[in-house]
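Sharing a chain and its predicted structure for anyone who wants a worked example. Both blocks are below, sequence first, tokens second.
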Amino acid sequence: MQVPSHVEYERATSVEHALSLLSRPETRVVAGGHSLIPMMKLRLAQPELLVDINGLAELAFITVDGDQLRIGALARHADLLDSDLAARHFPIFRDAERVVADPIVRLWGTVGGSLCQADPSEDLSAAFAAARATALIRTPGGQRTVPVREFHRGPYETVVGRGELLAEVRVPVKPGTGSAYEKVSRRVGDWPIAAVGAVLTLDDKEIKEAGLGLTAVGAEHFVAAQAEDYLRGRAPGEDTFKAAASIAAEHCHPAADQRGPEDYKRHLVAELTTRALRRAAERADNTR
């Protein structure tokens, strides 16, 4: 029988109210709840208080402000999937959201919830890492920002502390940028066997900046840093992409499990990285 332990429940009426509730020990935020509630049923998570933030409409937005795409933590997966504004600047998010779980989860699950769950196989963490996004965290004394690449301390652990709340994610918008996300899973809506997000900024047919996010394969902070370094300053092309893909596959740390052996996952990383870089470059050319 899957029965959670006793838990108190409070519905936050404002961000400030949520922060005051979150200052108590053993407190968790609930929004979509698609990851937290099953963990509570299995007693892998046993919070004493659940703080429901679904009423905080001020955290549910997707907008462009200057040279930044801003995504509120309470924006639903379906909102990001349907956002033409976000897709215009970063099609990687639409690519990723298409393969996140199923329509029911996407209608209720949130962007912030996915990042804060910190699942090693989570899709959006790799996508935001590739895009070099920044997390804005509200604190009792104001706010602070943390690069998404430093947001996850490890599996199911983030830098968000007691009395703090992830409020939004900001992604720098640059001309000449293209992006893409590629994923292989056992069945539609499943966690990935391996997935890769790529973001390329091109300047005069040269790769000015590169971002590569890997998920489900043990990449530190969801990033293929060595492959990014290789790409920077080189001309985009099939040989360059395959070489970078080989580096990404070499430096990740997949674990053999029911989804496949280590060598198969490395093969997927190499193939998916090549595909994602190819599509990202094509999209970057179309924005120039």
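Comments welcome. The first strand starts at residue 8 and ends at 11.
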